[in-house]
Design a protein that fits this description.
This protein is of the alpha+beta class and 107 residues long. The protein has one domain. Helices cover 26% and strands 21% of the residues. The chain is built from three helices and seven strands; from the N terminus they run βββββαββαα. A hairpin with a 5-residue loop joins strand 3 and strand 4. The longest helix is centred in the C-terminal third of the chain and has 14 residues. The model has no long low-confidence stretch (mean pLDDT 79).
Length: 107
């Protein structure tokens, strides 16, 4: 059985979302305790950013994840991206070629 690797960790406590009249999510809050705020330091990217994602779990509960740039998956993705950049770049497609490849218009 293979273990799924993730590039994010759970963080904070997410409140139930506030809904619009039509039932769509308007907003929701996330609460960080002092230890969560201290942990955010370890999730900073090389540029000093911390990425928090708010989402609904499969069970329908609100949750928050924080991107961990030092996770195994994130490091593997970074190495794959670096090795991919070493390949010669392809010439950009002309608009006619791009249109021919994707002729399924949204309108």
């Amino acid at each position: 059985m293979s273990e799924t690797k993730y590039d994010s960790d759970f963080i904070g406590f997410a409140d139930e979302p506030k809904l619009n009249e039509d039932g769509t999510i308007r907003s929701w809050r996330i609460t960080f305790k002092e230890n969560h705020l201290a942990d955010l330091e370890k999730y900073k990217t090389t540029k000093g950013n911390v990425y928090v994602t708010m989402m609904m779990s499969k069970a329908g509960k609100p949750m928050a994840t924080v991107y961990n740039p030092r996770s195994e998956k994130a490091m593997a993705d970074f190495k794959a991206k670096q090795s991919g950049e070493a390949k010669p770049a392809q010439a950009p497609a002309t608009p006619a070629q791009a249109f021919a490849e994707n002729d399924d218009l949204p309108f």
